[in-house]
Amino acid sequence: MNAMKYWFTCILVVVCMMELPAWQSADRLIPQLGKITIDGRLNDWSVPFYKNDLTKAGRADFHGPDDFSIEYALAQSGDDLLIAIRWSDDVLDSRYIPRDSARWRHPTTGNAMDRMYLYDGIKLQLQTDSLQYEAWLAPTVVANGSPVQWETRGPRNNRVAVNLMEANSVKDSNGVYTLEMRLNLMALAGQLPIEKPQVSWVMIDQDSPEAALASKLETLVYFHGRSSYFFN
Length: 232
Ligand SMILES: [Ca+2]
Ligand SMILES: [Ca+2]
Hints:
This protein is mainly beta and 232 residues long.
């Protein structure tokens, strides 16, 4: 490489580095939505859905959208954060798991893990510098007419059970489970606005409702991701 080419390459690298988008470019505006009914039906949702933006992990024989696919959307309406999910899954493997049964210990290794990873499920986390909220849901109604398994607020080592999320789920005419959720942000945070919440997802597909729990570690597939949002 001659000297001119060398310096040209150096300058190009520096310029490219300067133009790398800052991570804030992943910030997403939470769009406004009119008044909706939390009945699980998404015909009143007129905002874009995110699809294929979560990272897959777990078993290698996952066979694509026929096996599992999800779309989700967030919206705001007054003080409410609204959340919708379309859940397509070839085998439903879902049940109610009370919070006091959340941990499961492997019978051979003795290792403890979250029991929810052994069933179809959704973990939603909302975080800011001063606020932590977590909810576990099933794709279908599992408890008290709701898909919510439980909710907590507070830091990992000092979580407090809360009951803030209104949620419902139905199966539509295409066999897709649709979930609809409402979370009142004033009730959650005590004051508004909430600045740039980070929203994290884990969406778990298990397809072996009859299998021994230990074997389900081998069949686990999940999609995960986190994005930063802002309200207008
Ligand atoms: Ca599946
Ligand atoms: Ca499943």
